[in-house]
């Protein structure tokens, strides 16, 4: 495996290799030299702070950044205040994500004034927007390094530059076909891991910025994915989450020999893996074959995140979602027919241009009929460059909020009702951590993604144990370990 390459034997005085991933290991070696000099001068190793601000895919990217930093010799800082290097991996799916970045940058500026040697980097989806980079160049001149989503694999090379220079380095690519394998990754949780099976998105839902900032859909080779899963299993991972913006179109771009259902079948065979999750499924591409594979599987979790976005066929058309209200409902029927105990969760947008209170009623109707176990409800956010941003009839904020509150109420009522049905059952939970509020409790996750808190010893963390669900507290359970 490349990521076992010994950095100390790389000759950093020679020219850098052109081939990846060797080139990046060369730059990791170069950065490591810098880290050693830092240690000599300061009597300690430098600290790095990586902040993930986006979805699971971004979280996985952040683990790659952390992995590279760790290989170079940085030690993780708990917060920005003690860090010598800070990197924010940004999201731009809604405007409030952007605002969060600008807010935190103000704070970083004051930290850097106190410690001028601190280096600050920004990467991720928000950097792929031309307006953002201009604004950073203009008003946030203390930032040292800016790069995007397509060249994340070049992080070591960019960092080597940033450590040597005092000017802002900006490297943003419009797109890429490259998938660079075998770079270091550091998992946040030892027994759970996300795995990218594809990058980018081709769906161009009319409200969504993701296809513009993540580029075209590219599936990884099944061999590389399966090899990664096997390596993770050997390293103690029991639960995996296969990641893509639309996992149901896995293997279509480029055309491969394995589709998503096939990939799941293969992943299931890997010893040591006990649970398989995936995210996200676009309803338009969810096949009967996938439902069958899920129903027959012992390892694929009884949970499906199936974004609805809207229950109004008219709005779905304008959103470019390629399904109707009826098609969505019939899909849910087929899924529940095959797996009656499956938990369904969803995403809903309220306030899409032209949406009327009657359209919101249609959304509420779907929520009532499906009874989602949970739903993430978002206020529509206008993203510059998307078709929806140019549509007439943008909905007024007060109307949006009114619709949002109506939807949220139904979501909460139906979810409570649905999740309450589990009371009294004994189910397997993967113990994830100590409860944040009450240290005598552990927090476990059921196959259907519901959380349960129960008394137990922290030595159980990482194990799958049966727990009886005693008391439903609205979105989670209190339980007892059952022996
Ligand atoms: N690929 C995934 C979603 C990624 S974005 C999918 O298709 O399901 C996660 C969620 O953010 C989306 O499901 C959508 O509900 C929401 N979202 C995306 N763009 C948005 C926007 N402009 N305003 C509000 N919510 C948005
Ligand atoms: Fe955005 Fe639609 Fe792609 Fe999901 S499928 S990332 S909502 S464009
Ligand atoms: Fe955000 Fe990028 Fe994910 S925009 S939702 S971090 S793909």
Task: Produce the secondary structure layout.
Blueprint (H helix, E strand, L loop, with lengths): L21 H21 L4 E6 L3 H17 L2 E2 L8 E6 L4 H20 L4 E6 L5 H10 L5 E3 L7 H10 L4 E3 L20 E5 L1 E2 L10 H5 L3 E2 L2 H13 L4 E5 L16 H9 L6 E5 L8 H9 L6 E3 L7 H6 L6 H14 L4 E8 L6 H14 L3 E6 L17 H24 L5 E9 L6 E6 L4 E5 L8 E9 L3 E6 L2
Parallel strand pairs: 1-2, 1-3, 3-4, 4-5, 5-6, 7-10, 10-11, 12-13, 13-14, 17-19
Antiparallel strand pairs: 8-9, 15-16, 15-18, 16-17, 18-19
The protein binds S-adenosyl-L-homocysteine, iron/sulfur cluster and FE3-S4 cluster.
Describe the structure.
This protein is α/β, with parallel strands linked by helices and 483 residues long. Helix content is 36%, strand content 20%. The chain has 13 helices and 19 strands. It has helices at residues 22-42, 56-72, 95-114, 130-139, 155-164, 210-214, 222-234, 260-268, 288-296, 313-318, 325-338, 357-370, 397-420, and strands at residues 47-52, 75-76, 85-90, 119-124, 145-147, 169-171, 192-196, 198-199, 218-219, 239-243, 275-279, 303-305, 343-350, 374-379, 426-434, 441-446, 451-455, 464-472, 476-481. The strands form five sheets. The chain has a six-stranded parallel sheet with strand order 2-1-3-4-5-6, with helices on both faces. A five-stranded mixed beta barrel has the order 15-16-17-19-18. Strands 7-10-11 form a three-stranded parallel sheet, sandwiched between helices. β3, α3 and β4 (119-124) form a beta-alpha-beta unit. α1 (22-42) packs parallel to α5 (155-164), α8 (260-268) runs parallel beside α9 and α12 runs parallel beside α13 (397-420). 41% of the residues are buried. The model has no long low-confidence stretch (mean pLDDT 95).
